[in-house]
């Protein structure tokens, strides 16, 4: 993935707003009300409003149905589809984002607060919502963009604040973590032991599912990186937005188009490889025992 700048992120937002304005203009020209259009393309009127304001990114099939409903000319449809494809991905460079603020944990908090279901797969590191304070501080210390002392403290505290959401019973958090991520050590042996105990404790919450993928499991999918799925059809709002975020070394990629299906499929396959509940807690106990033996 090519390096990006803050200007690239601004351009991504601008493309989405251009798409929103174009869709709104086409509906106005057709004479259809928001309610009438919603009925024709089989989404809610509220989602039509969110799309036209730029708050929600429509899928390509929704844009295709929109164009048909307003009887857009062929050349207009082609431009509309090109604009949709260009607006579907947003890339935000860590370096640029951190120039204007000490850390980005508040951004993660806002995204997490907007959905009822979060599914998080990590193959290299324990998910942030499960990290102890010491583990989180160690992770931030190893980041490609080094944190100043005050920023490090603020980022760590904000990450722990985000974890309060785990105790909201009306929300759902599903985690899949590989054995490699569990064994990765960003700090001392006591730090790793405390982190394993933390995962075990959180796994007992009714609204939290923690699946572990041991090394010995036969792979049925090639996960090249971790990812987080926000939102799902289980939400009360059938039009609830679903999107995926992927973190790379230099930037964060937000995916809102049909490629979400790819990540949904990967999640399903990875879930089939994982162990849960008592089996997972037993596995964590075995790993903790290994750490204690190293400490003795």
Automatic annotation (TrEMBL):
Superkingdom: Bacteria
Entry-linked InterPro entries: Cro/C1-type_HTH, DUF5753, Lambda_DNA-bd_dom_sf
Pfam families named among the record's database cross-references: DUF5753, HTH_31
Protein name: HTH cro/C1-type domain-containing protein
GO MF entry, a single one: DNA binding
Signal peptide interval: none
HTH cro/C1-type domain mapped to chain residues: 23-77
Gene3D superfamilies: lambda repressor-like DNA-binding domains (1.10.260.40)
């Amino acid at each position: 993935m090519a390096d990006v700048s803050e200007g690239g992120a601004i351009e991504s937002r601008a493309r989405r707003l251009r798409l929103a304005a174009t869709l709104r203009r086409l509906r106005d020209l057709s004479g259809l009300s928001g309610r009438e259009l919603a009925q024709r393309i089989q989404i809610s009127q509220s989602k039509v409003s969110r799309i036209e304001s730029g708050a929600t990114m429509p899928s390509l099939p929704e844009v295709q149905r929109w164009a048909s409903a307003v009887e857009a000319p062929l050349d207009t449809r082609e431009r509309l589809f090109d604009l949709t494809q260009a607006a579907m991905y947003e890339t935000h460079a860590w370096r640029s984002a951190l120039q204007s603020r000490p850390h980005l944990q508040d951004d993660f908090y806002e995204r997490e607060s907007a959905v009822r279901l979060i599914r998080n797969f990590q193959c290299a590191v324990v998910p942030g919502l499960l990290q102890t304070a010491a583990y989180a501080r160690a992770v931030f210390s190893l980041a490609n963009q080094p944190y100043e002392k005050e920023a490090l403290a603020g980022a760590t505290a904000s990450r722990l604040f985000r974890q309060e959401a785990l105790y909201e019973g009306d929300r759902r958090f599903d985690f899949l973590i590989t054995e490699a991520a569990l064994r990765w050590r960003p700090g001392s042996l006591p730090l790793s032991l405390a982190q394993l105990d933390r995962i075990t404790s959180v796994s007992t919450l009714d609204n939290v599912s923690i699946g572990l993928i041991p090394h010995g499991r036969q792979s049925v999918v090639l996960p090249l990186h971790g990812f987080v799925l926000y939102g799902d059809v289980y939400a009360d709002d059938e039009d609830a937005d679903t999107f995926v975020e992927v973190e790379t070394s230099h930037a964060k990629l937000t995916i809102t188009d049909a490629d979400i299906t790819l990540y949904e499929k990967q999640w399903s396959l990875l879930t089939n490889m994982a162990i849960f509940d008592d089996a997972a807690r037993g596995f964590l106990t075995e790993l903790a025992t290994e750490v204690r033996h190293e400490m003795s």
